[in-house]
Amino acid sequence: MGKYIINGGNRLEGEISLQGSKNAALPIMAACVLCEGTVVLNNVPDIADVSIMKQILSSIGCMITTDGNSLYIDASELSGSTVSECLVNKMRSSIILMGALIARNRQTKFSYPGGCDIGLRPIDMHLKGLRDLGAKITEDHGYILVDAKDLHSGNIHLNYPSVGATENIMLASIFTKGVTSISNAAKEPEIVDLQYFLNAMGARVYGAGTNTVYIEGVDRLNGCSYDIMSDRIVSATYMCAVNMCGGDVLIKNASLEHIKSPYYKLIESGLTVQNYSDGIRVSSDGKVNCIDSIISMPYPGFPTDLQPVFTSMLTVSNSTAIINETVFENRYRFTSQLVRMGANIKIEGRIAVVTGVQSLSATRVYAEDLRGGAALVLAGLRANGNTIVEDVGHIFRGYENFHQNLADLGADIRYVPD
Ligand code: UD1
Predict the structure, then answer these.
(1) Which residues are known catalytic residues?
(2) How close are the terminal C-alpha atoms of the chain, in Å?
(3) Atom 8 (ligand 1) nearest CA
């Protein structure tokens, strides 16, 4: 896992290039299984979750070559449709492969997925959607066995706009005759990126980004070259860091288009934001104005993935903020670590009351999940003295070159492997 040692208090100045999106790259990599030719993916982030997805794809027979941030994925000779339990357990997003393998092989065997410990994260909506398309699914000793010989198109309604369930059903129905619709679908920009990618391979998918996604079955898909979208969660993380530390940073390749809700909150909290054709420039004097409230919601609402870094930012605001985490029931674990640093945070169920303090004090803290880990790093950048953030492997799951980028901007941060 390793640790970061951060000597807080430095302003952040300079420019960084924003990485490709984790949440777009993972389902798009899974979708490569649908194609019997070679797919070239560009702007793929060099992060641990992408490495796990590469291992999973290789384990079922995909040939993968890596060239910088480009991947060449050839799934023409798939050797299996059983995904090893230890790989599935490393990452929840591996469940997206279920839809792709069902479409390609009409059968698969999976164990229940792992991932960040931020809530129950059941997969009931994925399974119901696949059953409604005719898949016969049995659950046996922790395994999910899928027989999809009779897969057909259908009208699926999701009780909640689950990102993963929307993606899984999109992939499963790519080759079924007729049109499948998914109503109350997730509208996240990464779903739109998945649609663009599928259509670049010859699929007929419409409506992503709206309430209903339509998938008209095609016979086969062809190879293509595709550029993954930039990571909106990572760009807003750097924006929060600048607001907490003070500074002036150009985030190249970032766009405000997909972070409207966090953008307005950041303006409210005092960040100056300029939009350029090739990126976003942010500056701050390091004083954080309080934000009334944050309620995490499905897109276009405030993203749950940004709740931890915003909570961290609000620990040094000039008043009291109320945060309501409606998406994941267990996403405040990192706050106990912030409290060790002197933050004033009270949790009551899904509500956090965060009262700003003058300063945070440096101490040893433990990352327990990806975004909670990033929140601790931001607190360390702002705190007086040496903060040690342990178990930063969680952060490597989603942030490419995190400490190098922050160090390039002037932060005093060092990675020490175990
Ligand atoms: C994706 C993102 C994750 C983000 C989340 C919400 C990826 C790889 N991950 O995760 O970063 O935090 O969207 O924006 O894209 N749920 C059920 N049953 C289901 C499926 C989901 O109850 O079958 C619940 C979950 O427990 C959670 C909520 O629905 O409380 C949202 O989950 P979902 O949108 O599916 O998130 P993920 O796809 O896992």
Answers:
(1) 116
(2) 6
(3) 23
